[in-house]
Recover the amino acids of this structure.
């Protein structure tokens, strides 16, 4: 029970339906409740999110779903209110919602750029901004931002995605420094290539699959649970002296 007594809000958590491919947020929701947390699953995908929360409750755990577009300030105020009014406080926020953003610099439109910056940079900023006062009230907290190895290194594609994930990585360190004295820790997770609802179509298609495998020293694409395990660590008190850190979980991809 590594998260006993904690209340967590996880964005991008809609894909947590049993026997279906899960995303990091969905997988983390299940792991968090099994470790003793109460969880608010948040997403724009209402049907899948509700189904995930219902299944978690059917298994005897405490979870609710709230519709949240992470780019919308009012939605954030509502989602934090739901967490506090339902479970009494907020200890953990996982800013995990995201979307793919392919394209070279010349292929990327201004709309593509703004869309990526909105979901990965503004979304993380807004979530952090509205979580901080509640965490301060709770005596501290842990904010976990899902960046990417694409927030650390470049690639031949995904221009706006790289820029936005890089923004989330540095925003994390800025917030970590600002709120360390409030006992609020802020860290980023940097997954490598992992099969999820967001990536499955592309990752299973040649020549993309061979290109990916050629870049992963461990020789395999990752599993969502392997990322969620890292989130459990950062959410728990086991990481009590960890803030502003980057947890890379990538099968060695960025070690070379
Ligand atoms: N899968 C990978 O290989 C990989 C690697 C590195 C980083 N990531 C990042 O991990 C995070 C989770 O992705 P995943 O691969 O688990 O995918 P996933 O299939 O769980 O998809 C992400 C979720 O975010 C939700 N979402 C998108 N825009 C939103 C918005 N504006 N407001 C609220 N929710 C929104 C989607 O509905 C979806 O449920 C994303 O930030 C992604 O960029 C993924």
């Amino acid at each position: 029970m590594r998260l006993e007594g904690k209340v967590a809000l996880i964005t991008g958590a809609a894909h947590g339906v049993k026997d279906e491919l899960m995303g990091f947020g969905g997988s983390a929701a299940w792991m968090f409740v099994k470790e003793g947390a109460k969880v608010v699953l948040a997403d724009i995908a209402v049907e899948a999110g509700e189904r995930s929360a219902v299944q978690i409750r059917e298994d005897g755990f405490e979870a609710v779903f709230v519709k949240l577009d992470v780019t919308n300030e009012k939605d954030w105020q509502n989602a934090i209110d739901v967490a506090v009014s339902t479970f009494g406080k907020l200890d953990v926020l996982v800013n995990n919602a995201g979307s793919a953003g392919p394209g070279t610099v010349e292929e990327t439109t201004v709309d593509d750029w703004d869309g990526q910056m909105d979901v990965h940079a503004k979304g993380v900023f807004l979530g952090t901004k509205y979580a901080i006062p509640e965490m301060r009230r709770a005596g501290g907290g842990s904010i976990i931002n899902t960046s990417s190895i694409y927030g650390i290194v470049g690639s031949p594609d995904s221009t706006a995605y790289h820029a936005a994930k890089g923004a989330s990585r540095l925003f994390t360190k800025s917030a970590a420094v600002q709120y360390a004295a409030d006992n609020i820790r802020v860290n980023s997770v940097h997954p490598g290539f992992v099969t999820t609802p967001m990536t499955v179509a592309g990752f299973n298609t040649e020549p993309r699959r061979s290109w990916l495998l050629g870049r992963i020293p461990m020789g395999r694409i990752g599993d969502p649970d392997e990322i969620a395990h890292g989130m459990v660590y950062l959410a728990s008190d086991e990481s009590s002296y960890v803030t502003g850190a980057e947890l890379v979980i990538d099968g060695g991809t960025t070690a070379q």
